[in-house]
Amino acid sequence: MVSKVERNKREKENSLYAAAYELFINKGINETAINDIVKKAGVAKGTFYLYFKDKYDILDKLILDKSSQILNEAIVETRLKVFQSFEEELLYFIDYIIEYFKENKLMLKLIYKNLSWGIFKKAYRDYDEIHEIYNMFERGYEDTSLPREDIEKTLFIILELAGSVSYSSIILNEPDNIDEMKPILFDTIKKII
Amino acid sequence: MVSKVERNKREKENSLYAAAYELFINKGINETAINDIVKKAGVAKGTFYLYFKDKYDILDKLILDKSSQILNEAIVETRLKVFQSFEEELLYFIDYIIEYFKENKLMLKLIYKNLSWGIFKKAYRDYDEIHEIYNMFERGYEDTSLPREDIEKTLFIILELAGSVSYSSIILNEPDNIDEMKPILFDTIKKII
DNA sequence: TAAATAAAATGACCATTGGTCAGTTTCATA
DNA sequence: TATGAAACTGACCAATGGTCATTTTATTTA
Asked: Which of chain A's residues have a Cβ under 8 Å away from the Cβ of B123?
């Protein structure tokens, strides 16, 4: 049973997350004051400092949460489908995330600009779901021309590539919009694996 | 002839740039106050606001300057050499930049985390040198299997790839250090072109 | 070269923000 | 119902961002 204290605690914490998320998305991180966050969350300022060190602490935790959420969603959706090849599976997975961020541009902006690999590593340790991406690669590697020992590095390269190209084309339309960039991005990934 | 006013003006501005650069590098951007910058630069606070809108304004201009500087240096060095192929030329260019940033990690950290494609576009318009990267691609495209119309997109993809992989491996040693990652990065680029 | 004009530089000043902590409220336990 | 523990509060102060009337410096004009 969850005690009342526990429940209240989570309520305050969650309302802080929700308030910070909305403000970071709509006003930007630099333009959001702690005062804005606690006011929107309906808690006292001191409460903020019970849960978070500063603005960048709640930001880190926020994007860790959001990013593992969307990654997990993409993994689950991918597992539900049947594919002819690993290539097809991988591209489906990446496309799922791209389409998601096409609809949630502000979230992409927030996540991508602040998600360090260090944070991702923490997710990789702490969240079982994240392992699934690697497992997908593990399962599929026989279909590829890749040396066994390069799997992790290649996975990294593909995720970095997909991430940075998607970010630029979705947020900045540079060098072109995402729908124009998708074919060449996918062709590139096919060349890599 | 450069007037005395002009000369003084540039001195103040440059001392602000130099101070901000050193502080951003060593203390971090969030931890650096405008007061710190003007104190280090030896000018009054009001002077700062004559030249820059805020902290992020001087940061933008700083990284635009630093990044076009290193890009230009790499281009000049590459032009001095003779290559057997476009592939060789491109990899030399990228390697030059990687080696530079290996020796200047803090600068890479500052630039990469804050260089938006928007800023790069401005450099692309304003600085002739930046065009040279595209020209290198233009000259070399006959050596590749790429369709003519995909040159710009491919250039973009390769630069994004090299940039994000280099950043992670140099700064975070993730997923491995840059010397371990280089072979696979270069192989990947070869596959792409 | 001296006076008038223009431009640049200054730093005291105030509003906003980050962060603290003594006191208060809420909850679990005996 | 009393007691102790934990969560919560918001008044408070130090630090920061940004302004602007005044002063200093450079240029132009007479």
From this structure: none
